[in-house]
Structure formats: C-alpha cells, structure tokens
Write the structure tokens for this entry.
Amino acid sequence: MPKLIRIFLLSGLTLALSAGFALAQAQNRLSIEQVKDGLYMITGPGGNIGVRTTSEGVILIDNKYPQDFDEIQSLVASVSDLPVRYVINTHHHGDHSGSNAGYIEVAEIIAHQNARDNMIRGNQDAPPRLVYTKQTAVYLGGVEVRAYYMGRGHTNGDTVVYFPDLKTVHGGDLLHGIAPFIDYANGGSSHGWVGTMNNILALDWDTAIPGHGTLMDRRDVLNFRNQMEAVRVRMKTLINDGLEEQDAAEAIKDSSLAWTQAENGLFMSRSIPGFYAEIANESE
C-alpha cells in the first residue's frame, strides 16, 4: 500500500476513534450514586437529581436539562426496573426542570404554584399539571415523600423535599455547594432565605442533597445559613456607612466570607444589585 494512502487511512482511523470517544463522553455526562437504601443522587451538569425507588415505581426530584432525559432514564433503570411515576420540581430553573417535556409524557410532575407560574411566565416547556401551596405528599409503594413550601429564598417557589423514613432532605438550590444565586426577578430574598433555612433545620434529618455540590450534613446547612446571615450583616453595615450601589460588588468582599471571594460566583456576578436594593430597603 502506498505510504501516502496509508497515512490518510491511519489519520482517518484516528479521527474516527477520537470522534467515537467524544460521542461516548457526551452520551455519559451524568453519574448515579447511592445516598441511602432506596435513595440515589444523579450528578453532572445541571442540578442534582434525587431518585427514590419504591415497590411501585420511582419518584424523581428534579430532572436537569432537556437533553438529559434519555440518560436519566438509563441511570434510573440501573437501580430500578420500574418506571418513573412522579417528578417533583424544586423550582423552575431549566437546569432542574429542563426534562419536564419528556417526563410529562410518562409521569406526573409536581411543583409549587409559584414555580409553575414562573415557568409559564418564562415560556418553559411542560409546566407541571399538579401544584400545591403549602405542603403535599406522594405515597407510593409504602413510601412517603413530602414536599414543603417553607418560604422565599432562592426564588418564591422553592420546594423542600423530605424523606422522613430516611431522615434526608433534598433542598434544590436552597442548599448549594458554592456561593448561591438569589433570583430576585422571580421572588428571591436573602431575608426569606434565612427563615427558610431555619424551617429546614427544624425537620428531623441527618443528610441533605443540595441543588449543586456534594452531600451535606446538618453542620454544613447550619454554616450555609450562618454565612447568609453574615453577608446580610456586612451589606447592611456597608450601606449604613454610605456604600453606593455601583461599589457594592467590590466592597462586599471579605476574606472571612467565602461567598464574597468565590471567583465568578453566582452570588457576586448576579445577585449583588438585587441584594443591595433588598438590604437598602430594610435599612430605610
């Protein structure tokens, strides 16, 4: 075989193998791990998914992006041979509710009324058919899964999901492994968030699935609440000392407050204008 043709063939084979590897990687963006007996967490790009298996089907908490539907279904099938019967959206953001369009064809989706309203206002696909205002529950295969609205925080429609038999909560983006985002455009509130955290801590649990990041325990959640309070105090002090809004993003930085130091953190880049306005109004 001529050398030049051989080079072209080898180059083509290398490209094909590289493309195949890239495709395989793209098709395996997510992974699943056991949290407790009958409870799993799916991680990867987008919000963490809770997977509660029962003898009559599966209850999902959140469902990431639209393109993740098939892979989520495959991962669920690796821990249960039964179908997904219910999906609970912790809030409306697309990295948590993006696969609603797929799941609404095969399961019932549940969310807080405000979360559904936010989805409709944002023209999102497949808003849930079932909503609640204060609390609700799903009973499936002898398993109880409770959904609570505990107040404003990340948005005005956050759901806290509680697995009482496993002493575990899924907090959606009310719990976060990095600096949180307060979605003021959709009813978020730092003041409300502190109260909501106190309500979560009032439940009997030892393990928490956050919206993003690794599993948390009660100390982690308490530290999260304390930092929210500390950042609020710092902003209030700065405003009382004459801080102007345009200087807030830089002035809020404090070496003792990790959220204010996070590079490209959502708290710094997206929440500061609304945060300044909220605290300024409280200070009047």
The mean pLDDT is 90. DSSP finds ten helices and twelve strands in the chain.
